[in-house]
Amino acid sequence: xxxxxLGWGEAGWGDELARGALMTVxxxxxxxxxxxxxxxxFAAAKLSRFLSLRLLGDVYTTVVRGVPELLVIxxxxxxxxxxxxxxxxxxxxxxxxxxxxxxxxxxLCISVSAGAYATEVIRAAVxxxxxxxxxxxxxxxxxPILRLRRVLIPQAARFALxxxxxxxxxxxxxxxxxxxxxxxxxxxxxxxxxxxxxxxFTFYTVAFVIFLLLSSLSNRxxxxxxxxxxxxxxxx
Length: 236
Known about the structure:
By secondary structure, this protein is mainly α. Helix content is about 75%, strand content about 0%.
């Protein structure tokens, strides 16, 4: 390994790799945020008493979890641009080229994928809340919003944290797939460095170390979050 290639400034790739790592974290954080929102919405749909909403939730989780994330990225990136050009041409007569922003496409695709897994995690967490607690809250006169805020969400969040930690790890690793459409994150930067210097082992090893470091820090963070959420809970 040639460590001189990892220096900062004109002579090395250290600053480019750092910016790529930062982009990876930003994409993962945004995708995870929207993924949890999607998961909460579709978990509510799957728990609904309305058949149509339950079917909608089932279709979402089945389709998204059954299709490779890379294929979703290609379909949205290329198909989305084609669809927008068709709409712009048919409605406004616009014949120019329309390209979707890579960052937005990446966040959308990864968050949709993360949301499918988060849906099942959140749904299972809600079902794990003892029904007696909901009944007790009703018995003392709590309304639906108050029950949701003081009973259901705190309890479900505690049960969901381990699974949501896994969803975060999937999301973090899936950011590497966005490199295929040109977003300059850590894998794209490593590929450019490897191609420019003919030292692929050096750059891909650095990418490996960065992902491992991010994963380890994330694990520690979620462990502390779980410990905080379970404070005061009697162990069985």
